[in-house]
Amino acid sequence: MTLFGRGRTTVGLDIGSGLIKLAVVSHGSGEPVLTKVALTQVVDDAIVEGEVMDPGLVADAIRGLLASAGIKPKSLVAAVGGRDVIVKKISMDRMKESEARDVIRWEAEQHVPFDMDNVELDFQILDPEGDGLQMALLLVAAKRELVDNKMALLTEAGIEPSIIDVDSFALHNAFELNYPDGMQGVVALVNIGHETTHVNILEHGVPVLTRDLPIGTRRFREDLQRERGMTAEDADQMLQAFDTNDALTPFLKSRGEELGVGIERAGAFLQSSSRSSSGLSRVFLSGGGARIPGLSAVLAERLRLPVQIANPIERLRVADGVFDTMNVDEVAPLFMLPVGLALRTAA
Ligand SMILES: Nc1ncnc2c1ncn2[C@@H]1O[C@H](COP(=O)(O)OP(=O)(O)OP(=O)(O)O)[C@@H](O)[C@H]1O
Ligand SMILES: [Mg+2]
User: Fold this and answer.
1) Is residue 328 lining ligand 1, measured as CB closer than 6 Å?
2) Which residue has the least CA distance to atom 20 on ligand 1?
3) What does the pLDDT average to over 154-183?
């Protein structure tokens, strides 16, 4: 029996360096419905800088997570991200999509600093209805090794992925569904993970620039341990608490500076490199680091911009009982990316 129509469901699997997260979305009834979420911890250093150092361990964790969630995925979406993935808005002579497919590799050469023999390319025409001589394209290039490694990891976990997506697109999809009003002007989606902060800048809803900053909850924790002599557990507790802590605020001010500068630079770069864009108008935070009490306020003050925590179920329908075993306010920002992945329907 399936609960929602004929139950076309997609499993989104986000293999983070701190937590592996999955979200299941049913597409059967037309409107997407979130039917399950689950997460499991990853041992420190099993994944470093996006690279899986211990595939056996991570594959086991994935298998365990799927089993405990009672899922045998038919259609699974995972993603690649990081500095070996490039998302770029480019323009080229207007042509049909099929024709563009034939020449994209040649076209991409001028935009992608990778060895073109070992790169996977994809694109989307942003103005298919346009009639100018030029058309705008969103180009994605990922080092093939990255995609191959992800596939090998999933195979080891007993999964056949249907789609390998790109992190920034998944975040964008979750954002688009939940914050349709946020699709105006220039906004930054900032996903603060365990090791990496991913900055994704959208202009009128189109991702135009991505940047990765080597800062995450792990650094916050380790700095608290070193500077304050706290245990890892106490530091984690402080970072995952609901209330601001007087001891935490000055620490966040100095650490938030680094994040703030990274976000600001990405915004400034965009402004200098494209004629049309205005400056950043809003910032949305997601990921485990979004929850650090007081961080969004510190960033808002630093950037002099509204900063809010993004919620993947702000508008997305949620089936009964999905968050029964978790505190939804605690975990919601962590599920932005996996929900975005699960919003994809397999072709
Ligand atoms: N309820 C929670 N359970 C576990 N960790 C939490 C919770 N709330 C916040 N955290 C923090 O969130 C962090 C993980 O965040 P997130 O899942 O976004 O990172 P990740 O995707 O694993 O990392 P990265 O994207 O850098 O590879 C943990 O390291 C922890 O500090
Ligand atoms: Mg992450």
Assistant:
1) no
2) 16
3) 91
How would residue 316 be classed by pLDDT, with cut points 50, 70 and 90?
Answer: very high
197 lines ligand 1 (CB under 6 A): no
- Cβ of residue 338 lying under 6 Å from some atom of ligand 1: no
Domain coordinates of the chain in residue numbers? 85-143, 180-309
Say if strands 47-48 and 76-80 run parallel, antiparallel, or are unpaired. unpaired
Q: For residue 167, give the H/E element and its range.
A: helix 167-178
Q: Residue 3 — pLDDT band, cuts 50, 70, 90? A: very low
CA–CA distance, 120 with 301 (Å, rounded to integer): 40
Tokens at 175, concatenated: 């954002």
CA 55, CA 138: separation in Å to the nearest integer? Answer: 32
Residue with tokens 């059967």, as numbered in its chain: 28
Nearest ligand 1 atom to the CA of 17 is 27
Same fold, 85-143 and 180-309: no
- By the 10 Å C-beta count (0-12 exposed, 13-18 middle, 19+ buried), 310 is classed as buried
d(Cα 100, Cα 93) in Å, to the nearest integer? 9
Question: For position 275, what pLDDT does the model report?
Answer: 55
Q: Which CATH architecture has domain 85-143?
A: 2-Layer Sandwich (3.30)
Q: Is the pLDDT of residue 7 over 70?
A: no
Which ligand sits nearest to residue 326's alpha carbon?
1
310 Cα to the center of ligand 2, angstroms: 14
241 CB near ligand 1 (under 6 Å): no
- Sequence-distant (6+) residues with CB within 8 A of 46 are 17, 52, 53, 54, 57, 58, 61
Mean local confidence (pLDDT), 313-336: 95
Minimum-distance ligand 1 atom for the alpha carbon of 191:
18
Class of the CATH domain delimited by 180-309: alpha beta
Q: Which residues pair with 187 in a beta bridge?
A: 202, 282
Element (H, E) at 108: helix 97-108
Which pLDDT belongs to residue 277? 60
Q: Reduced to 3 states, what is the DSSP secondary structure of residue 78?
A: strand
Whole-number Å distance between alpha carbons of 285 and 308: 6
Is 17 a pocket residue for ligand 1 (Cβ < 6 Å)? yes
State how far the Cα of 34 lies from the Cα of 29, in Å rounded to an integer. Answer: 12
